[in-house]
Structures
1.
Amino acid sequence: MELFGDPAVWLPFTFAALMGVSILIYVVLDGFDLGVGVLFPFATDEEKDMMVASIGPFWDANETWLVLAIGLLLVAFPTAHGTILTALYLPVAIMLIGLILRGVAFEFRVKAPTPHKATWNWLFFIGSLMTSLSQGFMLGKYVMGLESTLGTWAFAMITAVFLTVAYSMIGACWLIIKTEGILQGKAVDWAKGGIWGLVLGLGAVSLATPLVSARIFDKWFTYPEILLLAPLPILSAVMVMMLWRSLQRLPNATDAGSKGPFACAITLFILAFSGLAYSFYPYVVPEKLTIYEAASAPESLMIILVGAIVVIPMIGGYTALAYWVFKGKASELRYD
Amino acid sequence: MDTLMLSRIQFGANISFHILFPTITIALGWVLLFFKLRFNATGNARWMEAYRFWVKVFALSFAMGVVSGITMSFQFGTNWPGFMETVGNIAGPLLAYEVMTAFFLEAVFLGIMLFGFSRVPGWLHTLATFLVAFGTTMSAFWILVLNSWMHTPQGFEVREGVAHATSWFEIIFNPSMPYRLSHMLLASGLTVAFLIAGLSAFRWLLGDRSKSVQVTMKTGVYMGALLIPLQIFMGDMHGLNTLEHQPQKVAAMEGNWDTQSHVPLLLFALLDEEARENRMEVAIPNMASIILKHKAEGVVPGLNDFVTEEGEVMHPPVAPVFWSFRIMVGTGFAMLFLSWGAAILMLRKRRGPEGVPKLMMLAMVPMAFSGWVATLAGWYTTEIGRQPWLVQGVLTTEMAVADVPAPFVGTTLGAYLSIYALLLSAYIGVLFFLARKAVDGDVPRPRTPLSGHAVTREIPAE
């Protein structure tokens, strides 16, 4: 395998890229179904059923991307996995409890006796909220270099709120595609109301990241690197405008452009993620451990890579099949 | 308690809760495929009714398994960083293959299997059912490869304190893997057999005489009767394999302190780990030697061989292993008697469930969860039996634990335990609720119209 040069260099890079892509896919996919859960209190009981129907066939696979991402961190960068997760012990625990509650609530809310349904709806919301907040909190802590001070906690609290609002925004954009009538109209309003979370979140992380690390500061603001980075904020601003304009045109009689907001939201998530990836590379534990130092033995990474090259296109294929089978406006989920 | 003990209890609690649900879904996936294929072949609605009832149980169990499984994948990092740092080169690829070849397959096709019956062609729905069953089994395969490797590691070398793979063939086909995998797959089959028989008996006792409850009753009882002798045989083989590779575990299972011949089979004993002796023994003479070595003169290893010259105990705690093992075996024999008794009565004059007396039906209801009891007891035997090692001979549990403050671990442990207690009671409650509802006939009841407009929608997927 000298074909690509030293495997101790390109294998960790490949795995960091794979892990990054998994995290990005996870944040977009579970982001929208978590967001739908976060929006629960604003919906009527009938609307809640429809909202769950819009994500019911997908949520499980969406969450699997988290397992893959954390699995790649675990298998490709074992020392980083331990360092990061022990530093984030409590928020991880809160996220897991949130994931447990919302995951089982999908099933219990329709299988438990009817009087219990309101409780499970409530737990579905609480679980979605706990998961979103704790993921935002972890993002903030990570940007702050996993340091624990009053300042980093405060910052993490702020990113927790922003990420949750951003999830609710992309969730609302998903609902615009999958629903119609009154609920779709509401979803448009929810999406409009959520844009601030995304904008402020992007802004806060962008401002904080270079301030925390001199290395990142240099990477951003010295010539010619600044040219590499410049397209990100410009494109993000354009995307926010496009998102706003596409929402202005909805809902409409022909449902034209109903996929627009979701596409813009995804693009924004990708841009935000690219910025983070650009800033933190080559570190996996900020400023402490690079992907090259943390990587597993090349022979172990190689055997995973072989499997990944065969299997990941298949995963893509049958995921596409599932989205195709359940395409169009959501209808009631039925077993028969 | 210290961080090590709390972390062990936390992981033990999580994995115990988790295994309950895969144990159901692994075999239930194949049973659902069987129902679907019978329906495809006969066109008989009873098979589809059976499918629809049990697919609900599958969906619920699957969700419980997924969320508790995610918890575990994170706990490797939050509580046991030393595990991946030391053996990550071996555990990593095995876990990665589980995610890539199993998790996505099951998660994606589950949606089609549950909600796609009227959306996709029949063959695709059958294929989705097959792929979900196949996915759960693949998942079991990879995780049991890893678990078996932790018991009987080979195919690696340790360089600078870190294990590196030398032969993936040896790692995957490690000596205990075939036995452990077969033992677990059969355990899953038995758990499902008794769950199906138990819930069907519950419906029968409530007066349900539908064709679908008759076919599920037969499926459960015959499946149990067929698998239990295989499992007893396989369990014995697995025990002999353990004797070869982890004699200290077998010594603890037998409560045998000294290496000697003519070892009795203890039915009861108070194990005194301070004095290193047993009191109040009730035993069958020579029987342990006969089971393990096939002759009364057979020499069985004793626990005292696993204490170092400095007095460090390198064998597992004896009482938990000893008793877990007896609970597993006892449950297994209860399964044997009940399933064979019911199967004979059902086959006699081909009377089906009519031939089973009420008392036996009543016994089947609590036995619905006998598979859980036996599976947990079996896992406690083998996992506690591996202590103090995390990876036999390579890494001790103590070396792998994270340096998280004990109060943190205590807090999360408390939170997990209360959620698991809540979810487990909700789960069991809903199983019986679904069964009762099936007895009443799964017909949509009229709902009170909300805010003026009539609700014409049918009941949602349940």
2.
Amino acid sequence: MAQQPDVRLPLTFERLTKSYGNARVVDRLSFRVEPGRVTGFLGPNGAGKSTSMKILLGLAAATEGAAMIGDLHYRELDDPTGTVGSSVESDAFHPGRSGRNHLRIVADATGTSTERVDEVLELVDLADSADRHAGAYSLGMKQRLGLATALLRDPPVLVLDEPGNGLDPQGVRFLRNLLRERAACGNTVFVSSHLLGEVEHLADDVVVVNRGRLVTQGSLSELRQTASVVRAAAARDLSPVLEAAGASVEEGEKGALVVRGLPLAEIGDRAFDAGIALHELSRHRDSLEDKFFAWTNDTDGRAQGFAEETS
Amino acid sequence: MKQFRVIKAEIRKLTTTRMPLAFLVVLAVVGAATAVAVAFGTDMDGSQGFISTAADQQSLMAFASNALVIAGLFGAIAVAREYGHGTVILTFLTTPARSRAVAAQLGAAFLAGCVLGFVGAGISAAAVALGLVATDFGFMVTTSGLIQVLAASTFAGGVGAVLGSGIGALVRNTGGAVTGAIVLLFILPPLAVQMVNETARWIPNTLTNVLSGVGSTVGVGPAFVALSLWALVPAAAGLVAVSRRDVV
């Protein structure tokens, strides 16, 4: 089946809101997922990621707002599975049905050939286990089967909910390469995850939600703002010098200064001009995990729950 | 064309697990019990009067009531477990128009129920014929009588499966759906008769007997329509519920 590199479909979430009774699980969520990039959808458990994805895929109705593929709702697409490949539940399989038959059901419903079923089984490395019951699959194998289902029609948009759960290191690498290749072809790749390390290696952009609300979004490299660590004999004298040059300066550990907004060389030049000897001048990059906890810092322990899961 | 593809997918769903096999085993057991009853059963007076006429034998073969119940349970389990296992997500992703997806489910269930009903009636007829070999009576049912029994059971199987599927879609839980089907087929009809005696003509058991040619309380046409309604009402309720609900 041929790729569709000319089809570039953004995903648009516009003031998306979902309430169950009095509980608002998605709260005026607005953001855009661009084609040609891998977008990570991050948030603690219960943040509203899966619900947002289900609304996007027409599995749940929005209370207010909309989630669109291009300009259309999922149900309005001429060829839904040929446009959006998705995997939203890691174990949505009948335990007594083989992986191959699971895919054949989708193939039947969409008019896809059985050769393509064999192809995707090979692609996700499930060909040898394809005739075993899905109930006997490991979590990683179920994830691969879910991925095979999403890829069956070779769609230009992929929406995957926690696809890395249960994958072994080879599987994680395979997934990473596959999604990056798809994005490089101009496909839209939207992946939710609570595995921050995985997202750090995978995503170009991230969308962070907490308690149903958008916390931040943007390119990962921009969001992980780079800082410089400076140690100097006269750190107190250096701070105003750097701030005067437009930098933001915070006190770091053990008397170090954490400087943002000035290139490394300029920090050195300014210190030299001020006659301040430097003992250390180094790059410091916040990890995604550090940033995540800063973004979703709750007082009720929800972010803490996330930390326990990722540790 | 699209709808045929979806129905084909639904049929593959029904035929790629062991559930149909389990139901065929049930049919075989019922058939074996029928054969034993015909061969060795007697009336209170020790005679085998209950197999002495063509009408008696056709009555023994009439499998439509059983087909309705067995296919009802089949439909209820088949659809409810889709929700339990989450495979309904795949259904709604490939066919986002819920009404089309449910119509395909009901269509596939109807066909599967028809097969169960036909096979059940075939086994039942064969069992009666086999059991008669051990008695002094020959096989007396006419060809048209046999065809009517087979047709009635086939139709009742389809109706039962649609009824069960509707309840399965409504309840979404296998245990609940099975209970619902049993309530609708076994508990509600006698209760209705107790409250309004006239309803006895319209309960499933009476209607299947009419269709099988072993009862004449109402005409075949009205019985056909009334039995269809027993399935269409829960099917419509299931369709409305599925169209309105989120998949969570």
